[in-house]
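Sample pair:
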Amino acid sequence: MSTEDMSPKSQTAQATAPVSARAQSGVAPTSGASSQSDAPGLSGRSAREWTKVLAQYRDPSTLRSSFELAVTVVPFVAFWALAWWSLSVSYWLTLALSLPIAAFLLRLFTIQHDCGHGSFFQNRHLSDWTGRIIGVLTLTPYDVWRRTHSIHHSSHGHLGKRGMGDIHTMTVAEYYAEGRWGRLMYRLYRHPIVLFVLGPGYLFFLQNRIPFGLMGQKRYWASAMGTNLSILIAVAVIWYIGGLMPVLLIFVPATLIAATAGLWLFYVQHQFETTTWEQEDAWQLHDAALHGSSHYVLPPVLQWLSANIGIHHVHHLYSRIPFYRLPEVLRDHDELAQSNRMTIRESFANARLHLWDEDSKRLLSFAQARALIHQPT
């Protein structure tokens, strides 16, 4: 999932720290997602060669896609109706029902995500309009998101192209070249309360209302304003029919829960210790996709509700594969199933990793980076 663009506009491009980090730093591994060498890749194949293998999984089935959409929309609407009915029984029951609503809303966002990649229906216009309609439910202007997410896919792991469609990540050198205020702002931005408590509401309720980063193009303003108008009409109808309570006890909490879960998924897909970041001269698109994305191993129910988005290393390497065919890839290629694996328990450690060390090629915590910078040369 995409956050998608929560990164600040700070100019931290190629700063040099007073003391450089060293590859022989002795920083110990702290989190999940196993490391993979760059090239050749798994089974002796390079990441680029893997794309030829994955091409056979790219074709969606209109019948299967329609079924996946139906089994997501119908329970979403049914739980909404049940939650609305429960307002006359117990507000606590209504709040409890916002949880399954959020779960299916998250799945709808992931279907919207596939529409953006053109991997849900073979007909691109059908995919796009499906994505636009879902975008009203997810509070995400489809055309704006599709563009920023495309930028994310085409530049992930490139240190010179950070800033759109990603979670802002500084290198150790850049962080220590900042002044006290700059370091404080970055620490606040990367704090779990900001990223996972305040961030989701800000992103989906506020930031998504304007096409940041694409302000000069009319089509993206049309996408944002069209989505905003549709959301306003939908909320007004809910308010007119049921008053304020359906908005406060169903719409708002369900959206926040789904947004928080989605943002966490996006975070752990790329923010893990052995992810990949490189400068222009060493960056390679396919290597960054395969080795810089995790395989988030989830229980079957959570994997279904998140539409297999945890199989992110395969998705990033070949984004045209429909989400329902990603498990098929893992069944056929065990080496991909074992690559970059991360369990839920292991993923929690990633919330304290904040700075990329270009020498040791690892994402470090602030404490690890401080120890690295201050160790004797």
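Residues 1-28, 35-40 have pLDDT under 50 and may be disordered.
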